[in-house]
Amino acid sequence: QVQLVESGGGLVQAGGSLRLSCAVSGRTFSNYAMGWFRQAPGLARESVASISQTGGMTIYADSVKGRFTISRVNAKNTVYLQMNSLKPEDTAVYYCAVRREPFTGATLNRAEYEYWGQGTQVTVSS
After folding, report:
1. Is 98 left (phi over 0), alpha (psi -120 to 50) or beta?
2. Peptide bond into 102 cis (omega under 30)
3. Are 34 and 22 spatial neighbours (Cβ–Cβ below 8 Å)?
4. Using one digit for the tens of pLDDT, what is the confidence trace for 58-108?
5. Angle formed at CA 72 by CA 16 and CA 24, multiple of 5 degrees
6. 3 state SS for the chain
7. pLDDT tens, position by position, 85-99
């Protein structure tokens, strides 16, 4: 069973930065593509970024492109989301997810992810 634990969330002023981490256990991390998603109160969960099995391809939602960077270190079983130039509209619970096997490419399609973490809160103040 694959398990994911997000960390690094918190309160930051607009224009600031945060780095989220997602630690994965239970399976060989390098077998999986990974994604970051977020959900604000009262809204649907939306895609943020995705990274392929080896990190060779990344995809970003238009709302974060140029500000956020997804990366992974397979030797540490960890995926990261570096968030710069944060805006109040970035406020949400951020979730890490594992794409289901055997697919290894990056995708922003939420339905293609099999395992999810508990989420970490990011709050951006004006």
Report:
1. beta
2. yes
3. yes
4. 999 999 999 999 999 988 999 999 999 999 999 999 999 999 988 899 999
5. 105
6. CCEEEEECCEEEECCCCEEEEEEEECCCHHHCCEEEEEECCCCCCEEEEEECCCCCCEEECCCCCCCEEEEEEHHHCEEEEEECCCCHHHCEEEEEEEECCCCCCCCCCHHHEEEECCCEEEEEEC
7. 999 999 999 999 999
Residue 61 tokens read as 């939602």
Rg for the chain, CA atoms, rounded: 13
CB 88 within 8 A of CB 124: yes
β-strand 120-125 against 10-13: which pairing, if any? parallel
The distance in angstroms from the start CA to the end CA of the chain is 40
Give the tokens for residue 69: 């960077």
